Amino acid sequence: xxxxxxxxxxxxxxxxxxxxxxxxxxxxxxxxxxxxxxxxxxxxxxxxxxxxxxxxxxxxxxx
Length: 63
Ligand SMILES: [Zn+2]
What we know:
Elements: E1 12-16, E2 21-22, E3 32-34, H1 43-61
Parallel strand pairs: 1-3
Antiparallel strand pairs: 1-2
Zinc ion (ZN) binds near residues 24, 26, 42, 44 and 45.
């Protein structure tokens, strides 16, 4: 609830620990990144790291 006060300008990108880079390729001086998926606010990063996993969980959950 109280996390809604974040400013839209401060996107948090996903840091891929396997490639040691920002998932969406962002490299600006003001970028922020995290290894924790729940803290990511960049939609491009979310799509990149979330899509394959969601698909796998979907396949396993269907029965
Ligand atoms: Zn990003």
